[in-house]
Amino acid sequence: MNSLSRREEETLLKATKATALRECDEFVKAFAECASGRTVSVAWECRGQLKEVQDCMIQFTAPEPMEAVRKEYIRLRNLRQSSSG
């Protein structure tokens, strides 16, 4: 079986986002510091920091990296199934 269930897809997406947040922590912290105490002005005052967060996150969550994560998950799942059966 080379497809993912909805549950598997959601789990992979959550795990990948969590990894991306860990890897992009310095940018997330910089954005959070900029946004602290602001309301509406965060939109223009922290634009640069937000772009840095987005640029970092996309390395992990763009379609190509997500497809690689899916393929690796399927490969490992198939290995587990073949070794247990």
From TrEMBL:
One of its GO terms (cellular component) is mitochondrial inner membrane. It holds the Pfam family Cmc1. The keyword Glycoprotein does not apply. InterPro entries: Cyt_c_biogenesis_Cmc1-like. It comes from the Eukaryota. The keyword Mitochondrion applies. Required for mitochondrial cytochrome c oxidase (COX) assembly and respiration. Belongs to the CMC family. This is COX assembly mitochondrial protein.
